[in-house]
Every structure is written in C-alpha cells, then in structure tokens.
Write a structure and sequence with these properties.
By secondary structure, the chain is mainly alpha-helical. It is built from eleven helices and four strands, in the order ααααββααααααββα. Among the domains are: about 80 residues, Arc Repressor Mutant, subunit A (Orthogonal Bundle), CATH 1.10.10.10; about 70 residues, no CATH class; about 30 residues, no CATH class. The strands form two sheets. It has a two-stranded antiparallel ribbon with strand order 1-2. Strands 3-4 form a two-stranded antiparallel sheet. Helix 2 crosses helix 4 and helix 6 packs across helix 8. The longest helix has 16 residues.
Length: about 350
C-alpha cells in the first residue's frame, strides 16, 4: 500500500475558520454559494431561505406559522421574505383552484428563479413623482379709492341796505374749496391670516371645591389623620405624600373621623381602584376626600323618660328609676306637702 501523502506546512490556514466535515448520507440539504454568500441579503433572509429549502414539499411556511416556530417577530419574518422575493429566491403566486378557492403557492429557488423564464431581478416599480402643489396667487393689493371732489360752497347773498344814507356792504367773498386728502391704502394681510378666524377665548376653569374641615378640630383627630396619611405608602407604594401634602389634607381626614369613619374605611376609599399611571397622588386624595365625604351623623333626639309601674297601686308613671308613683309616695310620707 502506498504511504499516506504528507500534509504540507502551508496547506492549512494559519487563522480563520477550520471546517470539520462528516460525510452525510441522509437528512441534508444542498445549498449554493449564491445564497449563502449573497452580498445583499440579510443574515435572517439567508437562514430563512435555507430553512424553507430543507422542508418537504407542501410544508406550511406562512408568516404566522414561522413566527411560532422561531423567536423572530412577524414583522422581521415578513421583511426577510420580501428580501428573498426581490432577489429571486422566493416567489408567491395566488392561484384559483377548481372548487373556486384562492390559495397562495410559494416557490423556493436554490438559485435566483431556477428553471423559470422570470427575470433574475424583478423590475422595480417606478417611484411616483410628487404631485406639484397648487400655486396660490397672492391676494391683489386693494386699489386706493379717490375721495370725490368737494362741491364748492355757493357765495352768500348780499345783505340789504340798512338805511338809504348808508353805503351798501361789499359782497362776501366765496370760501375756498376744502380738499380732503386721499385715504392711505390699508396694508394687505396674507390670505392665511385674512381668512382664518381668531380662536374664541376659552372660559377659565372653575376653582376646585374647598377641602372639608372638622367642626371641632381636636388634636387627637388631627394626630390620627396625620399618621394615616403618612403611612399610606406602606399599603400602596404608588401613593407617596410630602410633608406639605400631609399637613394640607389632615383636616379633611379629621372631618371623616368626626363623621364616624374608621381608618380602614378611609384607606379603602383612598387606595382602591387607582388610575394607571398615577401622576399626582395628592390631587387624587384631595378629590376623593371632597367627593366621597360621608354625611354627618344624625342629631340626637329629645330624651324620653321611660314608663314605670308603681309598686303600690300598679299605675303607670314616667320615671327614670322604678318605685312608687307620686300619690303613693305622698301617702307614705305625710310630712310632704300634698
């Protein structure tokens, strides 16, 4: 047997990739360098074309199916399929079947448009030229209107002679005609400013309603209100108040306590169903403390003295404590006045 041929020193590269190949007899796909070394295709498009060519005929390669198969999004897969169509490695045709259904057939090529008469590169669509914008002629300048010439003032008639000896007065000279200067032409405004009406003034927003105040600001109520507001962030991390907000809202919370609300009721009213995102927690608490204020407790009615049965005569009489009626008490104590 011949001795193995020695490997030359310069036969293997000193840097770069080293191929380790095994002979494959099944489960392989033949790919051309026109695809794998394409200069204009993206890496996603090359890999997607290699995956499509490795599938058997009739396999599903829709965008949604490929997005479920690979971690790439539907937008990236659709862009890669369009790249393959532009460079001739993929073609999608809509065909009508005999039963009337319209299906999309996808043709995958191992080289651009292999075995077809289609051009190697599709003719790009002409880019539509932008429509010329209509030229708006400038507004004509207003023609100055000449003022009409004033009519001359007629001369006054001569005055009659006062006496025959007096000389007649000379006739009055006519007044010189008064000429008016022509009005100065007003400057013309651009069409955009002359046609667009001025924006209507908006009405100012009404002031917010005042915060509820307790009828009797007890120090104990204000202290409990301050502790409740300062500890709201322990129950809801999105509500964080400053010291100024706590001092401003504490009297309103004391008004709730004065009307019989418990701390649990207050926390529930202030922290349930918060908007997302919560940008101004102090304004939200101010609104809820004002809008959800419970009604005041009912005023106590007049005190009613209960009825009692007399131990002596068994008559009914009103007294806070049981015992004898007034007559039986007077009969037992003769010293009391009747």
């Amino acid at each position: 047997m011949r001795a193995p041929r020695p490997v030359l020193a310069d036969a293997s590269p000193k840097f770069g990739v080293m191929h380790v190949k095994a002979r494959l007899t099944s489960h392989f796909t033949v790919l051309g360098n026109q695809l794998t070394q394409h200069r204009e295709l993206s890496l996603l498009a090359i890999g997607l074309s290699a995956h499509i060519q490795s599938l058997p005929p009739g396999a599903r390669i829709g965008i949604k199916f490929l997005a479920q198969r690979f971690p790439d999004s539907e937008a990236r897969i659709a862009a890669a399929l369009r790249e393959l169509e532009v460079h001739g490695f993929l073609r999608r045709v809509r065909e009508r079947l005999t039963d009337g259904r319209v299906v999309t057939r996808t043709y995958s090529y191992n080289e651009p448009y292999a075995g077809t008469d289609a051009p190697p590169h599709p003719t790009p669509r002409p880019t539509p030229s932008p429509r010329p914008r209509p030229v708006v002629p400038p507004a004509p300048a207003p023609i100055p209107v000449q003022a009409p010439a004033p009519t001359p003032v007629p001369p006054a008639p001569p005055a009659p002679p006062a006496a025959p000896a007096a000389q007649p007065a000379p006739p009055a000279q006519p007044a010189p005609p008064v000429t008016k200067a022509p009005a100065a032409p007003q400057p013309s405004l651009p069409p955009q400013l002359s046609r667009s009406p001025l924006p209507a003034p908006t009405a100012p927003l009404p002031p917010p309603p005042p915060l509820p105040q307790p009828c009797t600001p007890l120090p104990s109520l204000l202290h409990a209100a301050t502790e409740l507001l300062a500890g709201l962030h322990h129950h809801t991390a999105r509500i964080t108040l400053t010291a100024q907000d706590v001092d401003r809202l504490a009297p309103a919370v004391a008004a709730w306590f004065e009307r019989g609300a418990t701390p649990a009721d207050l926390r529930r009213a202030l922290t349930d169903d918060l908007p997302d995102p919560l940008r101004h927690p102090a304004k939200l608490l101010r609104y809820r403390l004002t809008a959800l204020l419970p009604p005041p407790p009912p005023a106590p009615g007049p005190r009613v003295v209960p009825l009692q049965n007399c131990d002596g005569c068994d008559r009914a009489f009103r007294s806070p404590t049981p015992g004898n009626c007034r007559d039986c008490t007077a009969a037992e104590s003769p010293l009391l006045p009747e």
